[in-house]
Specification:
This protein has 436 residues and is α/β, with parallel strands linked by helices. The protein is built from 19 helices and ten strands. The chain has helices at 22-33, 37-48, 67-75, 126-129, 148-159, 171-181, 187-204, 225-234, 239-248, 254-278, 292-306, 310-320, 328-338, 340-348, 356-361, 363-369, 371-382, 385-398, 402-435; strands at 2-4, 10-12, 55-61, 98-102, 105-114, 137-142, 163-168, 212-214, 281-282, 289-290. A six-stranded mixed β-sheet has the order 4-5-3-6-7-8, with helices on both faces. A hairpin with a 5-residue loop joins strand 1 (2-4) and strand 2 (10-12). Helix 13 crosses helix 14. It is globular.
Amino acid sequence: MRGMSVDGRVTSWSPDDEMTSNEEVLKTVVKELGLGNALNEKLREFRDEWKREQIHIAVVGPSRVGKSTHINAHLGLPANHDKAARTSATRQCTRLCTPYPHPRNDNIVLWDVPGVNTLDYTRDNYTSAINIDRYDFFLILTESTITSDSRWLANQITDREKKFYFVRTKTDYAVEEFKNDHSDSSTTDALKYVRGRLFDGLKRIGLEDSKVFLVNSKDRRLFDFPELQQQLCAESYDSIKQQALLLSMGSYNSRLIEAKYQLFEKRTNYVGLCSAVGGAVPVPGVSAAVDTCLIIEETLLYFFGFGLDKPSVRSLEQLTNVPTGSIEDKLQSLLRDEYPLLYAVREDLPADLKSFKTAQQLAPTIAKNLAEAISKQLAVIAVSESVETGAKVMVPVLGLALAAAISCSVTKYQLLKILATAREAARFVCSTYRTQ
């Protein structure tokens, strides 16, 4: 993943950078806890830790700069949604810090925060009035130039060892204006000019190393919005926050999809071992059992993490201003023809289900409804060479009995198979979205 600084430098990150090796973690945990219920509880704690992580993001700027529209872009909600931030067309200017929980994970909250040196928020009372220590990240929005108030705020944030990024909103207007004044210019020329002006302003006030993102908040496909989302993950303070942000934000570009895939892939070891410890459903043809409910729970996470659930696809259609069903119908056809198990799981979900936490509660029912289909797939996977090899490795490395090792290996390879197909479906939705 990459983030863009004002002079075009790129910062890189991958989920491996700050995460301990799965194998090392598993060996340590098994050694300390044995193979009973305590291990199962600890593995589930590792697996679900991201769900409990709270993240607060401040979106700061003067009135009419486009804070509400920008917040809605991160939330993945159209302006008329009942949980969207109300835009200036429907409300008064920001007078209070207003929270907007993410619809996919209410532990992630974006805040509409008034700018510095407004009527109620002077420099003297600003940091206490907005409760500056509450926020993990700051997005400082500007429509044109960087002011001395922005510099003051950036210094306050830096003193607290927090991260901030400058976000230039309404970039589409600036690009259009430049091209009108320079008839032979391109969009690339216009963006270079806009970025250069911001860089000059930052250099004058000693913030030349700051990162700036040029966005059109009404269309996340344009300019630097994908890079901004990636940067929020890249510079998160710990791996759990990275996971929470990455799994909650939409999959609107290929780099986010690949980063999510890598994270999901790492989780298969934990889920596989959970199944080995608590497996209850026999695998046809082998002396092992797996927890099919765990498989369904993780499959549901793939749906919500990749944005393949029906509410997410509907929101995508609304945000792209395409006819209702134009993306959904194509996805349905793809899943039905190419990935029948994923299609069946998706069809078992209520059409208005909006939260993974709620979906997870339905996993036992879905597992029961699809028991025969899952059992057939597990039987095929159980006799594969990859499962046999994986099981043989786990016996000496983790100290598992052979049946438990087979259970772990079967679960892992089933999840990898489902994950690969979910990634392909996400790539399909992303390419359809970007060409609308």
